[in-house]
């Protein structure tokens, strides 16, 4: 016995054989919706059309999702003012375009002893782009790189 639901069908409790015959008469499929219910609930639908519609909805949802772009800017612990300003202008442009910016200071060789200088550069960078973006992740040392992530202001 199954509970039958759907359009153009008499809703009610029928035997499995009757439900299958009712679906065949309309050239539709009998699909079990809720097997845990007592009696199980079945629906008379066009299953291929149902799958097509579901796939179409998922595609629309995927198209509406925003893709987050992360641009990377690399500095050194002794980056000069001109280079700093040049990279700063790029970061501002990226933030205005809606991309996240990952700024990192890369320490080569023994320059790792200038960790504090690298952090100062990153904090200065964050202060300069304050009106365009906000700090999502404060400067953090990972191996030979100190990384900070900026996200655009809405």
SSE topology:
Blueprint: E1 2-5, E2 12-14, H1 16-25, E3 29-34, E4 41-45, H2 47-64, E5 70-75, H3 81-96, E6 100-106, H4 115-128, E7 133-142, E8 145-152
Parallel strand pairs: 1-4, 5-6
Antiparallel strand pairs: 1-2, 3-4, 6-8, 7-8
CATH-derived architecture of the largest domain: 2-Layer Sandwich
CATH superfamily of the largest domain: Translation initiation factor 3 (IF-3), C-terminal domain
Low-confidence stretches: none
Write down the Rg.
30 Å
For the largest beta-sheet, the strand count, sense and barrel status come to: 4 strands, mixed
Strand order of the largest sheet: 2-1-4-3
Large-scale geometry: rod-shaped
How many separate domains?
2
Helix content: 25-40%
What is the string of SSEs from the N terminus onward?
EEHEEHEHEHEE
Mean pLDDT: 88
Which CATH class of the largest domain?
Alpha Beta
Strand content: 25-35%
Kindly describe this structure.
This protein is α/β, with parallel strands linked by helices and 154 residues long. The chain has 2 domains: 60 residues, Ubiquitin-like (UB roll); 83 residues, Translation Initiation Factor IF3 (2-Layer Sandwich). It contains 4 helices and 8 strands. The chain has a 4-stranded mixed β-sheet with strand order 2-1-4-3. Strands 5-6-8-7 form a 4-stranded mixed β-sheet, covered by helices on one side. Strand 1 and strand 2 form a beta hairpin. The radius of gyration is 30 Å and the shape is rod-shaped. The two termini are 57 Å apart. The relative contact order is 0.12. The mean pLDDT is 88.
């Amino acid at each position: 016995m199954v509970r039958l639901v759907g359009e153009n069908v008499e809703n009610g409790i029928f035997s499995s054989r009757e439900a299958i015959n009712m679906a065949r008469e309309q050239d539709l499929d009998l699909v079990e919706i809720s097997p845990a219910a007592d009696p199980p609930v079945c629906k008379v639908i066009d299953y291929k059309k149902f799958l097509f519609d579901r796939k179409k909805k998922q595609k629309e949802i995927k198209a509406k999702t925003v893709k987050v772009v992360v641009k990377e800017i690399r500095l050194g612990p002794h980056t000069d003012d001109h280079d700093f300003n040049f990279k700063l202008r790029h970061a501002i442009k990226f933030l205005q375009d809606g991309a996240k910016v990952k700024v990192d200071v890369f320490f080569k060789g023994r320059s790792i002893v200038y960790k504090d200088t690298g952090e100062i550069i990153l904090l200065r960078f964050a202060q300069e782009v304050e009106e365009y973006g906000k700090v999502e992740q404060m400067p953090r040392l990972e191996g030979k790189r100190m990384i900070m992530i900026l996200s655009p202001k809405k």
